[in-house]
Amino acid sequence: MPEGDVVWRTARQLHDALAGRELVRSDFRVPRFATTDLAGRGVTETVSRGKHLLTRVEGDITVHTHLKMEGVWRVSAASGFALRDHRIRLILANSQWQAVGYQLGIVEVFRTSNEDLAVGHLGPDLLGPGWDAAEAVRRLSAQPARTIGEALLDQRNLAGIGTIYRAETLFLRGVNPWRPVGEVPDLPGLVEMARRLLDANKARVETITTGNGARGSQLWVYGRAGQRCRRCGTTIQRGSLGPQLEERTAVWCPRCQPL
Ligand SMILES: [Zn+2]
User: What count of Cα atoms within 13 Å lies in the side-chain half-sphere of residue 224?
Assistant: First the structure.
């Protein structure tokens, strides 16, 4: 699942291709908006809010998309051909570029003035211009008995973290994912670590938290269950964390991150 850094980069690609230009074609391949036509309208900008993408169009219109599990936006030179691919959910094209959204988890259109209905619940955006670390800490602290692993994935606390950055952040801070939020010694330090990792990776395709870009050496614990910890040699563990039916994989080193 794409995390905040990938979404941030996607927003920039969409912005570069669409902003300041007039759409010559929009093609919504989702039933609810099948008849929506934005041709002739200029795109103002695309921004990310956590893992949400907001493409703002003239006339108080926002196109809201979310990559969810499998989604991806691809930008290429405009072509006049009809694209036949059942995975396409939305095409936005100007005379130079076409942006094609595949397998998007959310595609919807609403008034820009109503954006808060879709993203107003989000906590501070780790990569947003209004990032507010103190507010993120305040929101996390509001539920002290919750596990820190669950709390970090809850986008209402802070927006942008998925299972990769959760695993890497907690490892680097030596915090077990099952520890209650109220017993995490330095929440501001933890939040700052998450922001630093996302920020360091937002402009590159690969995710590197170890400082080592060699293939197979880029991450501390994510994707390494059953292998040895790079620091202490202990076998990396994997488990399910979260409420029933919403469990997500947690990965940790039991020695570097004691409960
Ligand atoms: Zn270890």
Answer: 23
Ion ligand 1: protein residues whose beta carbon lies under 5 Å: 229, 231-232, 234, 253, 255-256
171 CA from centroid of ligand 1 (Å): 8
pLDDT tops 90 at residue 125: yes
Active site residue 248: yes
Choosing from 2, 56, 168, 195, the catalytic residue is 2
Helix axes 4-18, 187-201, angle to 10 degrees: 40
pLDDT at 245: 74
* pLDDT tens by residue, 30-71: 999 999 999 999 999 999 999 999 999 999 999 999 999 999
Q: Are 163 and 1 in contact (CB under 8 A)?
A: yes
Tokens at 16, concatenated: 């570069």
How many Å lie between the centroid of ligand 1 and the Cα of residue 231?
Answer: 5
Q: Among 9, 51, 173, 195, which one carries the catalytic annotation?
A: 51
Flag whether the pTM goes above 0.90. Answer: yes
CB contact at 8 A, 217 and 15: no
Answer yes or no: 2 catalytic: yes
Distance 252 CA to ligand 1 centre (A): 8
Write down the pLDDT at residue 28. 98
Q: Mean pLDDT across the stretch 164-187?
A: 98
Instruction: Measure the CA–CA gap between 100 and 172, rounded to whole angstroms.
Output: 37
| Active-site residue flag, 51 | yes
Question: How buried is 233 (Cβ within 10 angstroms: 0-12 exposed, 13-18 middle, 19+ buried)?
Answer: exposed
Catalytic residue among 29, 138, 146, 248: 248
